[in-house]
Every structure is written in C-alpha cells, then in structure tokens.
UniProtKB/TrEMBL annotation:
Pathway entry: Amino-acid biosynthesis; L-lysine biosynthesis via DAP pathway; (S)-tetrahydrodipicolinate from L-aspartate: step 4/4
HAMAP family registered for this protein in UniProt: DapB
Domain of life per record: Bacteria
Predominant subcellular localization, coarse grouping: cytoplasm
Family: Belongs to the DapB family.
Catalysed transformations (reactions): (S)-2,3,4,5-tetrahydrodipicolinate + NAD(+) + H2O = (2S,4S)-4-hydroxy-2,3,4,5-tetrahydrodipicolinate + NADH + H(+); (S)-2,3,4,5-tetrahydrodipicolinate + NADP(+) + H2O = (2S,4S)-4-hydroxy-2,3,4,5-tetrahydrodipicolinate + NADPH + H(+)
Protein name listed in UniProt: 4-hydroxy-tetrahydrodipicolinate reductase
Dihydrodipicolinate reductase C-terminal domain location: 125-261
The protein's role, per its UniProt record: Catalyzes the conversion of 4-hydroxy-tetrahydrodipicolinate (HTPA) to tetrahydrodipicolinate.
Entry keywords, A to Z: Amino-acid biosynthesis, Cytoplasm, Diaminopimelate biosynthesis, Lysine biosynthesis, NAD, NADP, Oxidoreductase
Organism, as annotated: Candidatus Brocadia sinica JPN1
Active site: H152 (proton donor/acceptor), K156 (proton donor)
Pfam families for the chain: DapB_C (PF05173), DapB_N (PF01113)
C-alpha cells in the first residue's frame, strides 16, 4: 500500500485526488492538508470530495506518515510543503503551476533529498503534445509563425498557463529560440510586423473551461493547428496518481511525466 497525503485537498483538483485515491486499492489516503483558516478544517475530507467518510480529517499540520505527497495548491504552498517533505523524507508530486525560477530552483534542491516530480500538466494527451509540438516546430523551419493559445476557467489564478509556458519552452529547445527574447505575451498597440522568431502566447479566461491548448504554425497560404482539450479534471488526477505510484519507491531525483508515461519522441 502506498500512503498518500494531499496538499490543497479542498480545491478543484485536490478534492478529486482525494476521491480517486480513496477508491484506489493500491493507495491509502493518510492526510488532507489545507491552508490555515480554511472553512473545511476539522471536517472529513470525504465530505468535501463527495466520497463519504474517509476517516481523514482536513488539517494544516502534516503529522502523518506518508510515502508521497500530491500538491495542487499554489506556488508558495507547494514550496513550503516541499520543504517539509524533504525533512520528512516524503516523495512529492507537484501539479501547482505559476512557480517562478527561484521556486523551481528550490524544487531542484529538494530533489537532491527526495524523489520529486513537478509537471504543469499530468494528462497523457498534453505530454504527447509537448513532443509533437517540438517535432513540428523543427520540421516547419523558420518560415512558420508559432502562436500558443490557452483557454481556462474564470477561477484560474496564474496566466499564462504552466502548460502554455512549457509548450513555448519545447519550441525554444527544438528551434534555438529563447524564452526571454522571443516570447511575447499578448499584443496591443502599434506592435509592428511580426518578427519570424516570435512565439506569441495568449491566455483566454472563460466560464468553466477545464483546459484547452492550441499551437498554431502559420505560413503564407497555409497553417497547422494542433489542439488538446481536457474534458474532465480527472484526466489530470489520473496522471498525478500514476506519477505518485511511479515515484513512491524511487531514489531522490527530479522525475518527469515522460518518465512516468514512457512517451518516446
Ligand atoms: N499539473 C496539472 O495537471 C494541473 C495543474 N493545475 C494547477 O493546480 C493548482 C490548483 O488548481 P485548482 O485545484 O484548480 O485550484 P483551487 O484554488 O481550486 O485549489 C487550490 C487549493 O489549495 C488551497 N491552498 C491555498 N493555499 C494553501 C496552503 N498554504 N496550504 C494548503 N492549501 C492551500 C486552496 O485553498 P483556498 O481556495 O481557500 O485558497 C484550495 O483549496 C493551480 O496552480 C493549477 O494551475 C490544475 C489542474 C491540472
Ligand atoms: O488551472 C487549471 O485548471 C489548469 N492548469 C494547468 C496549467 O496551468 O497548465 C493545466 C490544466 O490545463 C488545468
């Protein structure tokens, strides 16, 4: 049995993680953590997750023994809990997005002590998309304009999405473009003609969209559009659970969803 703790347990993702972990015969839910002052502290997490009594009470303190902690909270909270996991020798799966470079550096530091997996998107489809986009960017060459459009629900706090940023990084790695020089975030005003190297990223916020990502490769006379749409958050949840099972018994290190899903370019 792999013992699982959840940080951000009452959130849109955290509550589905709780429900699916509770149903999984290979996993045991051992802790459900939330921020200080949260209205659900002291309640059984099953009440929030809609899966009945689990016997796991939502708390702020991570006192339980666990093999893996799954985090879908916020960048600050992911780092704070990562530090605790490093001290407690608990592996960590971080799904929270919006981490800045210093926060990513801290996760790298924790990965010298414990197994860590940090991924902006745990779905199989998006991890295939990461590889596809890199390959297409290489194949079309310099004459195609590359634009990334992401659409998410109105409650999302970070923009652009972590997935859109990772897609841009994949294009940069494949083509020699640079994130700090070639990426523009939306456009407004007299911006001039589009430089060939530019990568445009556009964040749309609308209603309850779970998560759509489109990459457009456009040239004169034609364009390629590659889109991924998530139909349910459970697709990310299933990926996070696969990741937790994967890193549970691994040595310290930084692992990726490509390691988990064994996606070959
Ligand atoms: N990697 C992936 O595949 C995916 C990543 N995400 C990312 O996961 C994150 C969470 O998304 P989502 O579930 O929609 O967001 P929610 O806001 O619904 O959930 C976040 C939860 O974390 C809680 N939280 C905030 N601060 C703390 C803290 N200090 N300690 C413990 N819990 C805390 C929030 O409480 P409160 O609401 O009271 O602030 C909330 O319950 C986002 O960064 C999102 O981008 C989302 C989907 C897929
Ligand atoms: O906040 C969300 O909901 C999502 N966030 C992730 C991101 O920022 O890339 C992934 C997913 O599309 C849902």
């Amino acid at each position: 049995m792999i013992e699982i703790a959840i940080n951000g347990a009452c959130g849109r993702m955290g509550s589905r993680i709780a429900a699916l972990v509770f149903e999984d015969s290979e996993l045991k839910l051992v802790a459900a953590l939330e921020r200080p002052g949260h209205q659900s502290l002291g309640k059984d997490v099953g009440l929030v997750a809609g899966c009945g009594d689990t016997g796991i009470i939502i708390t702020t303190a991570f006192n339980a023994h666990a093999d893996v902690l799954i985090d879908f909270s916020s960048p600050e909270s992911a780092i704070a809990i990562g530090e605790i996991c490093a001290k407690k020798n608990v592996a960590v799966v971080v799904g929270a997005t919006g981490l800045n470079p210093q926060q990513h550096e801290k996760m790298q530091h924790f990965s010298r002590l414990i197994p860590c997996l940090v991924s902006p998107n745990m779905s199989v489809g998006v991890n295939v998309l990461f590889n596809l986009v890199a390959q297409v960017a290489k194949m079309v060459g310099k004459e195609f304009d590359i634009e990334i459009i992401e659409t998410h629900h109105r409650f999302k706090k970070d923009s652009p999405s972590g997935t859109a940023l990772r897609l841009a990084e994949k294009v940069c790695e494949a083509t020699g473009r640079k994130m700090d020089e070639d990426v523009v975030y939306g456009r407004s005003g007299i911006t001039g003609e589009r430089p060939l190297n530019e990568i445009g990223i556009h964040a749309v916020r609308s209603g309850d969209v779970i998560g759509d990502h489109t990459v457009i490769f456009g040239s004169l006379g034609e364009r390629i559009e590659i889109t991924h749409r998530a139909h349910t958050r459970d697709t990310f949840v299933r990926g996070a659970i696969r990741a937790a099972k994967f890193i549970a018994k691994k040595p310290p290190g930084m692992y990726s969803m490509s390691d988990v899903l064994q996606i070959q370019p």
